[in-house]
Amino acid sequence: MVTSANLGFPRIGAHRELKKALESYWKGKTTREELLEVAKEMRLRHWDMQKKAGIDHIPSNDFSLYDQVLDMTATLGCVPDRYNWDGHEIGLDLYFAMARGSQTDGRDVIACEMTKWFDTNYHYIVPEFKSDQEFKLSSNKIFDEYTEAKRAGITTRPVIIGPVTYLSLGKRDDNGDTMELLDKILPVYKKIFQKLSDMNVDWVQLDEPYLTLDLSDTQKKAYTQAYTEIAKIFDGKIMLTTYFEGLRDNMDLALNLPVEGVHLDIRRAAGELDTVLSKIPDDKYLSLGLVDGRYIWKNNLRDSLSMVDMAINKLGHKRVMVSSSSSMLHVPIDLELEKKMDEQIKSWMAFGKQKLREIAILAKGAQDGGEGISDALSESDKIAEERRTSPRIHNGAVKERLSKVTPGMSRRKSGFAQRQKAQEDALGLPAYPTTTIGSFPQTQDIRKTRAAFKKGDIGTEDYERAMKAEIEQVVRYQEEIDMDMLVHGEAERNDMVEYFGEQLDGYIFSKLGWVQSYGSRCVKPPIIYGDVSRPAPMTVTWSKFAQSLTDRPMKGMLTGPITILFWSFKRDDVTLETSCRQIALAIRDEVSDLEASGIQAIQVDEPAIREGLPLRRNDWKAYLDWAVDSFKLATCSVQDETQIHTHMCYSEFNDIIEAIAALDADVISIETSRSQMELLDAFVHYNYPNEIGPGVYDIHSPRIPTKDEMVTLLEKAAKVIDPSLLWVNPDCGLKTRGWDEVKPALENMIAAAKEMRNKSKTRKTG
Ligand code: GLN
Ligand code: ZN
Q1: Which domain holds residue 552?
Q2: Alpha-carbon dihedral 649, 653, 655, 656, rounded to 10 degrees
Q3: Residue finishing a domain among 389, 410, 443
Q4: pLDDT, tens digit, for every residue of 350-373?
Q5: Measured from the CB, is residue 735 less than 6 Å from ligand 1?
Q6: Which of 169, 224, 326, 706 suits 490 as a labelling partner, its CA being 20 to 30 A distant?
Q7: Which atom of ligand 1 is nearest to the CA of 735?
Q8: Nearest ligand to the C-alpha of residue 604?
């Protein structure tokens, strides 16, 4: 029997039920019991869905009220001192305090740090360790959820984050090697496995995605030690799951750990299947991650089946499993709920529920050589053929244009020094010029107007009149406070990627395609299904209107190709590079049109450049090469006088600074205020040559920074960066803040810039 398995199911709910339940509990509108009831109902519903789909190994403990890493932290009793934990079982309040911080009874405790989960857009809560950290079993969630499913008639395969991955995900307060804590953490893992043995659990899924990363020697040693010790305790079988990349140089290590099965992410590492089959020890199960847990396209069943057959030939039916490539946390739940989606494009797609079916079908087909699934196979062939040839996907003009791109198109006409001179003459800005990142407060009014327009409650004329009034107000305000380079405020934009996606060909949108970003927060990424092109200008009318209101320079505002790509669902039939270059050409046209309509400065935001970094260092250069080139392809059509800006948020720049410099933007604005300009270090050490606006105002906090604070930050920056290169701006866009916060903060910011100007004058003459 070929077994079917799933590594994890989305937990937010097809209608974001968990989000609603959580937020209402946090607001105090519902009780703990009500929240737990919703959670339980969802677990049971999702288990049932998997069972009905025909999945043999259904996961439990993949559900989480906030985050699966935080769950493991609670299980291991690894609570930072500031939460004053009493050492008893960790309850909801403490759990949410770690996730979100808490302000109760006059006590103000900050949340644990959050960061990206590998190369996904999911964010996990970072475990915090002391150098003498103690661990102790402090939550029964794993056991309780197993029992809960069992009572409902479903035998599950509990999911646990493995010890080496867990320690690798965390940070030690003294920055020491977290592997030194292995001896402390293993006793708790052993206790867990002892208990699972006592409960007669058959299979456990141990997630060790770190096995797909570059490992240190201590991590490698930790793997051998940890699994040797756990294997001695556990009577059941362990499926060691690796995902998001292939195993590469860790293959021997992974295949030879004392576990019963190994899972390989075929979607990311199809090329490794041969070697894995030749190397896997005789007694091990191999789980093939064939159905994509990250993309939303249907599986090519025939291709998959041929790989399963290869595995069966080598290992026999019993030792082969068919599975999702990773947890399905990263895809929406149910495509059937998309009632209004284009039927043909929809027929090419699969969300979580549909993917479960695919796994079951493949397992069935593997059993009898495909005979029993011949209908599904021919349907899959038909779709593959459609996608290969459909003119809706393949746009000859886009392909032709891309093939004619020359290296010169990604180069500005002159070097920075010459451009800087030309821009100085054209723009006539003072020293320490002031600007903002683009958006102004998105008020209730603005949101309502946009929603009414979308629903058809108001017509185009009324909508445009309302948006123009917003723009005019923002322009007048900036003039009033003496801002040097203005923006139009982005009132017309719902989201910095969706706004462009909606106007580009090759994009489609879902109604309920929500994916968890962190905690109760979800995103609904637009979907790239085909070759991308720009049928008409996207922002020109707005920017032109804004510029017509003022003599000051108005900055055009675009999202860059890398960010548009990484914040969308991607294609699986072309490379990321190809999609990125197609988007770059579309943005290039927009840049040219903005310039032609009299816009002298254009900002192309790329906050996602770091997110796109591949998991393995060896792959970084290739990615950065095409990413940088795409940005340049998008921005380099302009004359020397036209100033190209870019913006990036919360990025660590140290290891990618060369690529950032290679973007060759005339001005870059970055987030630096929180770290007190620490994030500027990379630019200083690298001797970053172009102009730079280190954010002086933390827009993520409701606090209003004083003039003096911002002067201090600017002075700090001016010590290490040539002041003639410095700009003065906030950390990020202002859309999430209210006018009452933004006004005083911006006015203080401009006063700070003026003080810097005066000081530098007295310094020069004196
Ligand atoms: N221009 C965008 C804004 O101001 C940039 C947002 C971002 O960097 N995430 O909102
Ligand atoms: Zn930003």
Answers
A1: 418-759
A2: 70
A3: 389
A4: 999 999 999 999 999 998 888 889
A5: yes
A6: 706
A7: 10
A8: 1
Nearest CA to ligand 1 atom 5: 733
Ligand 1 centroid–CA 613 distance in Å is: 20
Give the relative orientation of helices 182-198 and 141-151 as an angle to the nearest 10 degrees: 20
What's the pLDDT tens digit per position in 270-305? 999 999 999 999 999 999 999 999 999 999 999 999
The amino acid occupying position 6 is N
Burial class (CB in 10 A: 0-12, 13-18, 19+), 106: exposed
The domain that contains 211 carries what CATH number? 3.20.20.210
Residue having the nearest C-alpha atom to atom 1 of ligand 1: 438
Residue 700 designated active-site:
yes
Task: Please report the pLDDT score of residue 764 as a whole number.
Answer: 46
- Beta pairing class for 667-670 and 643-648: parallel
Residue 704 lies in a domain: yes
The residue whose CB lies within 8 Å of the most ligand 1 atoms, and thus the one to mutate among 606, 732, 742, is 732
Residue closest by Cα to atom 6 of ligand 1: 733
Residue 699 Cα to ligand 1 midpoint, Å, equals: 11
For the CA of 439, the closest atom of ligand 1 is 4
Q: What is the pTM of this model?
A: 0.96
Mean pLDDT of the chain: 96
Same domain, yes or no: 622 and 736:
yes
Per the CB < 8 A criterion, the answer to whether 49 and 359 are in contact is no
701 and 627 in a single domain? The answer is yes
pLDDT at 765 over 60: no
Burial class of residue 400, CB neighbours in 10 A (0-12, 13-18, 19+): exposed
Same domain, 119 and 193: yes
Cβ–ligand 1 distance for 436 under 6 Å, the answer no
- The tokens describing 48, both together, are 């049932």
Contact between 616 and 213 under an 8 Å Cβ cutoff? The reply is yes
How many domains, the chain? 2
Residue showing tokens 């958006």: 439
Q: What are phi and psi of 205, to 5 degrees?
A: -100, 115
| Length of the chain measured in residues | 766
Q: What is the spatial distance between Cα 290 and Cα 293, in angstroms, rounded to a whole number?
A: 9
Query: What pLDDT digit, counting tens, does each position of 176-228 carry?
Result: 999 999 999 999 999 999 999 999 999 999 999 999 999 999 999 999 999 99
Q: 733 CB under 6 A from ligand 1?
A: yes
% the chain with pLDDT above 70: 99
422 CB-near residues (< 8 Å, 6+ apart) = 414, 639, 640, 641
